[in-house]
Design a protein that fits this description.
The chain has about 240 residues and is α/β, with parallel strands linked by helices. About 40% of the residues lie in helices and about 20% in strands. The protein has one domain: Rossmann fold.
C-alpha cells in the first residue's frame, strides 16, 4: 500500500467501525479455533500499523512482520514490540515455532499467495494453525482494491484451493461482514459505475460509525461457529496436511 493509505489507517484504525468490528470477529475466531488452551506463540504477518497487536497479545507472546518502514515504526511505538522488516520468504523465522500464524487482510496483497502460505506452514509448531482473512466476492473489485494494492479478491472455493496447494488442510471457513453486505456491495457498484477513484474507508459521522460498528460487530456471536455463505470478507483456519 502507498504511504497515504498507511497514514489514513493509523488515523482511524482504533475507532473506525470496520477495524473495531473486525477485531471482535477475529477474537471470536481465535477463541473458537485456537490450537490449544493457555498462552500461545503467535506470528502476525503484515502487521501494518499494529492495530491487531494488542488483541493478539491477549493470547500469548507475539512476533510480527511488516515490510513498510513507516508502518512498522508506528506499530512498534504503538505496541512496544520489535517488529521484523522485509518480505517473505526473506525474513528469518524459526521453523516449527508458532502455535498460531495470522494474516489479516494481507494474503490478497501477496503475488505468490500459495508460496507464502507454504513457507509459513513450516513455521508452525506441532498442532499449530493458520488464520487468514481476505476480501471476498471478486465481482466487487473496485477502486478500493486498486487503492489498497490488492492482487485479487477470493471466492471460498478459490481460497480453499490455495490452502490445499500450500499443503494446508482447511478446518473452518466462513464469510463475514454479511449483515452489511448488500449495502457495501451497492455502494461499491455505484462508485464503480460512476468512475469514483480511491478507497472508501473515510471516517463516517459518529452516529453512523456506531450503527455500522454494532451491526458488523454483532456477527461475532455466530460467525466462528456457523459458516456464512456470503459476505464482503472470508475467514479460514487451516493446519498442515498429515
Amino acid at each position: 500500500m502507498d504511504r497515504a493509505t498507511y497514514d489514513r489507517m493509523a488515523e482511524i484504525d482504533q475507532d473506525h467501525w470496520w477495524f473495531v468490528a473486525r477485531r471482535r470477529i477475529i477474537a471470536a475466531l481465535i477463541e473458537r479455533h485456537r490450537p490449544k488452551p493457555g498462552p500461545m506463540r503467535i506470528l502476525e504477518v503484515g502487521a501494518g500499523t499494529g492495530s491487531n497487536l494488542d488483541l493478539l497479545k491477549r493470547y500469548g507472546t507475539v512476533d510480527a512482520i511488516e515490510p513498510d518502514d513507516g508502518a512498522r515504526a508506528f506499530a512498534e511505538r504503538r505496541s512496544g514490540l520489535r517488529i521484523k522488516g522485509g518480505y517473505l520468504p526473506n525474513v528469518p523465522l524459526d521453523d516449527g515455532a508458532y502455535d498460531l500464524i495470522v494474516l489479516l487482510d494481507v494474503l490478497e496483497h501477496i503475488p505468490g499467495d500459495v508460496e507464502a502460505l507454504a513457507h509459513l506452514r513450516g513455521k508452525l509448531a506441532p498442532g499449530g494453525r493458520i488464520l487468514v482473512t481476505v476480501p471476498g466476492a471478486p465481482w466487487m473489485w473496485s477502486a478500493h482494491d486498486v487503492a489498497h494494492h490488492h492482487q485479487r479478491r477470493y471466492t471460498g472455493a478459490g481460497l480453499r484451493a490455495v490452502f490445499g496447494q500450500a499443503g494446508l488442510k482447511p478446518r473452518f471457513m466462513t464469510h463475514f461482514n454479511s449483515v452489511l453486505f448488500p449495502l457495501i456491495a451497492a455502494v461499491r457498484l455505484i462508485r464503480k459505475v460512476g468512475g469514483k477513484e480511491g478507497g472508501d474507508d473515510a471516517m463516517p459521522s459518529r452516529p453512523v460509525n456506531a450503527i455500522l460498528k454494532g451491526l458488523f460487530g454483532a456477527e461475532r456471536f455466530w460467525v466462528a461457529s456457523m459458516p456464512l455463505p456470503f459476505g464482503v470478507s472470508i475467514a479460514i483456519v487451516g493446519e498442515p496436511k498429515v
